[in-house]
Design a protein that fits this description.
alpha/beta, Rossmann fold, Alpha-Beta Plaits, 2 domains, six-stranded mixed sheet, four-stranded antiparallel sheet, 14 strands
Length: 308
Amino acid sequence: MTPIIVVKNLSKTYSSALTALDNISLEISAGEILALLGPNGAGKTTLISTICGIVNPSSGKIFVDGFDAIKDYRKARQLIGLVPQELVLDSFETVLNTLRFSRGLFGKPKNDNYLRDVLEKLSLWDKRDSPIMTLSGGMKRRVLIAKALSHEPKILFLDEPTAGVDVELRKDMWALVNSLRKSGVTVILTTHYIEEAEAIADRVGVMNKGKILLLSDKKTLLKKMGKKELKIELHDPVLVIPASLDSYKLSLTEQKTALLYSYDTSANRTGITKLLNDISKAGLILKDVSTRQSSLEDIFTNLLEEKK
């Protein structure tokens, strides 16, 4: 299937000599949800802004549903809805009129039934006649999303959409994103919340210093890079791990009552059986054993550490 977004060798260097994007190539399939993770300054917002035509690239190519995003800017931009980080709205305008105006800017005919559907999905219909200034920060964030959807885009970019909003609103937005995917909309979001990527993304990209360090299917990523941690609770606390167990690279919990052992789930041998035998030989009495699967947060943190 032809990707809906194709980015080839994209770079952006500002006049200050800061390289915000460093030779990025990326393909995004229609109908998928891609989450871009990375620390502040990683280049996530610059990448989105460049694809949307807000920032001019220094070099490289961008195609949006076959249209050259630089040469055919208007055609490419009509396919895109963008929710920026900043809450930029006309404070004196009403919610519904804000959406009507935005829809008109893209040359779309009036369709209040569609706008009502968008507002209802975002729990904003009862606020349709309210001036923007009267809304809470969370409600304004919802209006930004509704505004981005007002012209029925095929692609929706969400730049830190749930930053500073409460957990309940975050889950509402996740539900909306899932419903958009079902209707065929492609969603690309940047986020600092690892659980957001785990909850809704099909693929995860990790960015740092203008590069994409990793791009993978979420399930494959967890299976490929994820490790399990074995927690071995002891009957009695120990101050020092016996030297005979050094080869296992164990660590002690803060309370000194449990040993922690990391192992690769895809390895032919995990070493657990031998470890438990050697612990017993060292004179330690086991109380309980449990495991924990690595999360995307663990993988993300470890990957950034490796690339320093």
